[in-house]
Amino acid sequence: METSNNSIADAVRPLPKDMSHHFSDVTKARAPSRMKEFYKYFLIPNIGQLAGGLPSASLFPFDTLEAQTARPDRWTPTPNYPDPDGTLSSRLAATSISNPTVASHVVVPHDAPTSDPRKKIDLATALQYGQADGYPPLLSFVREFTRDYLHPNVPYKGGPEVIFTVGSTDGMSKTLEVFSNVWVEGKNDIRERPGLLCEVFMYANVLTQAQPRGIQPVPIEMDDGGMLPYGPGSLEDVLANWDHSKGKRPHLLYTVTMGHNPTSGVLSLERRKELYSICSKYDVIIIEDDPYWYLQYPSAAVEEAKARNLPIPEPKIANTLEKKSGYEYLDSLAPSFLSIDVDGRVVRLDTFSKTVAPGCRMGWITSSPSICERILRVSETGTQQPSGFAQVVIAETIMGPQPEASAAFAARSAKDRATFSGWKMEGWVRWLAGLRGQYERRMNRMSKILEEHAYQLKQSTPMRGSDSDWGVITKTQLYDFKWPRGGMFLWLHMRFETHPLWKAAGSRGNLIDGVALSTALMIFLTRKPYLVLVSPGLMFSATDKIRRERGWAYYRLCFAAESEENVDSCSLRFGEGVQRFWRIKNVKELEALLDDDAQSQSQSQSQRRTQDDDGAQLVNLGSWMGC
């Protein structure tokens, strides 16, 4: 009955709009790979393979691929909704295994007896040349997860398609190639220069990808709720008042909507609808990069209010869409732009980097079938599909051995069998919920400690003996922040204007400005006894103008990379370091830090040290690499 209802609902949905007018010239010219056209014949049972230049699978130097893998209930999840009194947290603690080191044994056989490519998980197929859209068993699982559980409300007929990438960076690179022509200054007309709409603070690596293609960043103002749809500097304002002498009106928008990098916000469904309406009006493609979608923190607003002695806010339902996945955890999360994509203009980037490991170099794109088909053509003559080793290990871990393979595996010794059945869909969702719990607890620990160091208290010395029992206590704010609503980062607004040396005259005739204080503090924190490294907001500013005007006023702190215990000590050292930095009143002491930074930048990367002779380790709260 449910399948019948789904068919009826799909019949009344609109077809996705044709977006081919946005394709680049090269994209329009791409044809299917002639070699890949033969792959459909490879699936014929018992076919004699004389066509393809494939090495013999019997000569692969691997008989099996084996690993010890975590159980999906290794980590304790956190409540899906605010839990002021901790009742739900106590119940959830009982759903996790008592020993987190308990593991299962995974064995990928050389040959699996099944002929169904969607169930055939073995080395003979995974390590062979394959289709560019992905390894069939894992692609089938990810496609089901994406369409039926993660995005069950996509409103266009037929639903979205899925194609594998070599991680989100690769996915972004291919998306830019599909939707933008290369523009060269001095060679091409300025009126043809492409642009990329983005938040004023954004993931900087995307700019590095876009700029060699001549794509100019077009920053949009944002608030605590994310990108602004209306008002000065908003998406509507920028598009409605576009100056064509600066280039083509942008038709690409890039955003990280859940656990925004670097500001950690989560874009609400209401805000998404407003932004989508504007994108539809001005015919803009939405590139939704969501590596942190599963990291949304219901406790943040409550814990923030409790820490600041504010009224506990009323809980808000993030997902008000009608169709649900059947998993409370997934249904509690703010939904993707795909859930309101009636036009078929959303290109979503997902990755296994944050849910499994970055070294997998695996991700996937979800979009309309016509857009995925064009991206497939790019992959066919480029990366093709991700590493077969990574794909088959993840497939075996999540899906488990298939029935035919299980029967063959049963003949092995009890030690080798190890009763592994795979996570399946339920286990995969449970694993994601447990990861959210791990990171949410780290977020709360860092935020609580930073709250305690946000102000500096100072008692003045009485001027007269008769006033010895009296003193004036001044309270100076050093920084402010919102507790992260998602993601892996805390976005700290530094109040450098309260520093004693703000706008002080330097010894070289210069003024000590925000850039100087921001750089000096970052260097100061890398010294003993603090030994923490943060990412400056300058790195995430979309343009030079934003860097000069306000980028220096922010730091991004990552609470994900360190253990829960180390998050405590690192956060404490950071807070103490900021407190001590605000006591620097000598300009020369601050300038010495800046001079040291300039000198260190002249050294090669190989000469830089992160560990002192006595073993004191510099801890990276910035986590610059990969995120």
Automatic annotation (TrEMBL):
<keyword id="KW-0032">Aminotransferase</keyword>
<keyword id="KW-0808">Transferase</keyword>
<dbReference type="InterPro" id="IPR004839">
    <property type="entry name" value="Aminotransferase_I/II_large"/>
</dbReference>
<keyword id="KW-0663">Pyridoxal phosphate</keyword>
<dbReference type="GO" id="GO:1901605">
    <property type="term" value="P:alpha-amino acid metabolic process"/>
</dbReference>
<feature type="domain" description="Aminotransferase class I/classII large">
    <location>
        <begin position="197"/>
        <end position="405"/>
    </location>
</feature>
<dbReference type="GO" id="GO:0030170">
    <property type="term" value="F:pyridoxal phosphate binding"/>
</dbReference>
<dbReference type="InterPro" id="IPR015421">
    <property type="entry name" value="PyrdxlP-dep_Trfase_major"/>
</dbReference>
<comment type="similarity">
    <text>Belongs to the class-I pyridoxal-phosphate-dependent aminotransferase family.</text>
</comment>
<dbReference type="InterPro" id="IPR050859">
    <property type="entry name" value="Class-I_PLP-dep_aminotransf"/>
</dbReference>
<dbReference type="GO" id="GO:0008483">
    <property type="term" value="F:transaminase activity"/>
</dbReference>
<dbReference type="InterPro" id="IPR015424">
    <property type="entry name" value="PyrdxlP-dep_Trfase"/>
</dbReference>
<protein>
    <recommendedName>
        <fullName>Aminotransferase class I/classII large domain-containing protein</fullName>
    </recommendedName>
</protein>
<dbReference type="Pfam" id="PF00155">
    <property type="entry name" value="Aminotran_1_2"/>
</dbReference>
